[in-house]
Amino acid sequence: MNSMNVVKKLVSVVVVAGFLAVGTFMLFSNRNDVTSKQVNTPSNQFDDLPLGVSKIFELPKYHEDFVISPDLESVAYILREGNSYCVYLNSVRQKCYGYVQGLRFSPKNELWYIAETIRDSHQQFLVGNGAEGKVYANITPPIFNQTGSAWVSVATTYSGSLKQKKNYLIKNGDETALPYNSVSSLRISQKGDVAALIGDFSALVINGKVRATHDIIFIFALSPDGERFAYAAQDKSENGSRTSRWSAFLDGNRIGGPYGEIGEFIFSHNSDKLAYTALSIEKRKWVVIVNEKEIGQYDLVTGSVSIASSEAPMSFSPDDSKFLYFATNDKTKGERYLFINGEQSSEPLASGFKIVFSPNNKHAVYIAESLPSRRSGDLNDSPQRKFFFVLDGKKSKEYEYFSAVQFSSDSKKIIYAFEDKGNIMRVVEPVE
User: Could you tell me which residues come within 8 angstroms of residue 20 by beta carbon, excluding any fewer than 6 positions away?
Assistant: First the structure.
């Protein structure tokens, strides 16, 4: 199994799914009553775990895929049995289907996936916590808010001899028909605000209201409180034709540009600050901008090239005083460095992954990949990929596969899991 894919899958099961979701119409106006205090209160599920390494699971030899729950208590995997794909949770077979994809745990440690009665039959449905949902021609994987108290998905049906297409919003299991032919780039805030791009990326809709229209809106972000939004839109020339330049907008007002590209937007936890990356036309450098102030320029900022990256390599600290990201000034070497508020703060890395802060805001840990080395002296040999984490500047041992690192609620321990020859091992270490 490809180690990068494994790391990305494992990282994704413990990374909170903050603001990825949908939006349109007045049907999106209902919020979940979840306070910011609930969001920021860490679980105490790890506080009583003893220090040391323990085996928590043994994977079967020929599994198709596997994921680990955020609490590191459950492992789910897929086994191919004849023409069926069977889902197992902690070695207990759940059910078999014609095909299974999108295996994942919610922030509440519930197992979710997309199933098909017959592969490529256009009969897909969500299975969440053991319950099967309604059948559609296609359905997207669920996207959760930070605590897992709300989720959204978009489903599609085709009817009649002309195969008329109709899209539906599925929010917490409730279905609502959407008056749009295309819905993409789903977002959901912790409060349950839902947003999406519609009409071939020409409009941004939040809680049922069109908040912005342009020829093309490429990317956008919704603030944690659901009250603010930022996006990148393609500029027009004086005669109204499209250009290859882009501008940044905050709450509908232009705040930057023109740029050659815009990479990613991220709001601070209190929704007051906005950071983004953009390719400066004059400098031919990627710039990092926080609250409309440039704090650094680089050959490459990780996460600026592909918004689909699951690495989540940019983050504000819990108190929003620090902004952390991975960047390089010599992309030909394949090196990346961690930067904090524009200051280089790490040794050379192949790449950087999710940055996690302790509940008391005194410690930070991130996952990184070592610069490639070869298993032998043969130049034709493929590089051996190794991953590690860095806690307060101190590097851990290297692994081929391991999950993201978490803190106990008292910030005194870090907990993570790694795979060793099919065994899932849990590690509990003190934070010094």
Answer: 143, 186, 187, 188
Cβ contacts of 286-293, under 8 Å, gap ≥ 24:
286/327, 288/323, 288/325, 288/327, 288/339, 288/342, 289/248, 289/256, 290/323, 292/255, 292/256
Distances (CA, A) of 346 to 57, 368, 389, 398: 34, 10, 12, 16
8 A C-beta contact, residue 233 and residue 249: yes
Establish whether the linkage from the previous residue to 50 is cis, with ω within 30° of 0.
Answer: no
List, in order, residues 6 or more apart from 379 with CB less than 8 Å away: none
Helix (H) or strand (E) segment spanning residue 38: helix 36-40
Vertex 212 angle, CA 310 and 205, to 5° = 65
User: Taking a C-beta distance cutoff of 8 angstroms, is the pair 160, 133 a contact?
Assistant: no
Which residue do the tokens 């296609």 mark?
138
Q: Does the pLDDT at position 60 exceed 70?
A: yes
Residue 262 neighbours by CB under 8 Å, 6+ apart:
218, 219, 232, 246, 248, 276, 277, 278, 279
Please give the sequence-ordered ranges of beta strands (E in DSSP) within 33-122, or none if there are none: 52-58, 63-68, 75-81, 84-89, 92-97, 99-105, 111-116
**Average pLDDT score over residue span 305-322:** 63
Give the pair of three-digit tokens for residue 27: 């049907």
pLDDT of 285 higher than 80? yes
Q: Are strands 337-340 and 373-374 parallel, antiparallel or unpaired?
A: unpaired
Residue 120 and residue 97 in contact, taking contact as beta carbons nearer than 8 Å: no
For the entire predicted model, the pTM comes to 0.78
SS3 223: coil
Read off the pLDDT band of 267 (50, 70, 90).
Answer: very high
